Amino acid sequence: MALVSAKEMLQKARKEGYGVAQININNLEWTKSALSVAQELNSPIILGVSEGAAKYMGGFRTVVAIVTELINNYGYTVPVAIHLDHGSYEGSFKALEAGFTSIMFDGSHYPIDENVEKTKAVLKACHAKGVSVEAEVGGIGGEEDGVVSTGEQANVEECRLVASLGVDLFAAGIGNIHGTYPANWAGLNFDLLKEISDVTGGVPLVLHGGTGIPEDQVLRAISLGVSKINVNTECQLAFAAATRKYIEEGKDKLGKGFDPRKLLAPGAEAIKQVVREKLTMFGSVNKA
Q1: Radius of gyration (Cα) for the chain, nearest Å?
Q2: Does residue 288 sit within a domain?
Q3: How many domains does the chain have?
Q4: Which of 19, 151, 217, 288 lies 20 to 30 Å from 279 when distance is taken between CA atoms?
Q5: Longest dimension (CA), the chain
Q6: Does 143 score more than 60 pLDDT?
Q7: Average confidence (pLDDT) over 6-12
Q8: Catalytic residue annotation
Q9: pLDDT digits (tens, 9 = 90+) for 13-28
Q10: Residue 107 domain-assigned?
Q11: The CATH number of the domain where 12 resides is what?
Q12: What pTM, to 2 d.p., does this model score?
């Protein structure tokens, strides 16, 4: 299947009560690992790309080319969306022009009126090309591309307003954070999530900061309308640990163990295992 918008896969997920994983990609190994496991498990998948990751990978067009050619080369058939994660206003239009099939415009740091107006403009441009749009109200805690936030509890009326603009997926701060969770983390605010779900008219909801949230909380969030769960840090930690182990065991000094195809292989396999666990936990296996 060619690249698709995230809209249809998430509407199906919300209707049938499971979640679709957004696996953030950072290089070729990440992309290959995520796509291969999605195909293996016959699961839809969303490949998340921050503006920082896109810059590192050579630009938005390079990201689209990598994903497209991997799909063509390996004959992958599952639905795949390339999604701009926490996009700036300017970055949203650049990613759209480059061929991204889903855009998150993160206007959560703007006053609500400005968030609304900018979201409207992004919606108009994206929907003209059949591209899905994610909007956000209430900052997500932690750090994303150097931007640090302690997280917010989203305002329910602001959620109602932004969701009513016609967005295809919607993110709101409910106590979740990017990165690893501190020992004293209070957990997700399910009362607030229920209120947001009730006022957003069935729009698929998004849970950012999926790394470290206990499985029971993830599943409860899915039952309350969360249809996309973002995972990034957990893959990074797994990749780093597996690569470190390979080097500490001296395998890079055996034969041509220093060849990057061998050096990075354990990390790529570790990413695959995380993706398998997440697709299984979220319930998207055989939902392609």
Answers
A1: 18
A2: no
A3: 1
A4: 151
A5: 62
A6: no
A7: 98
A8: 85
A9: 999 999 999 999 999 9
A10: yes
A11: 3.20.20.70
A12: 0.93
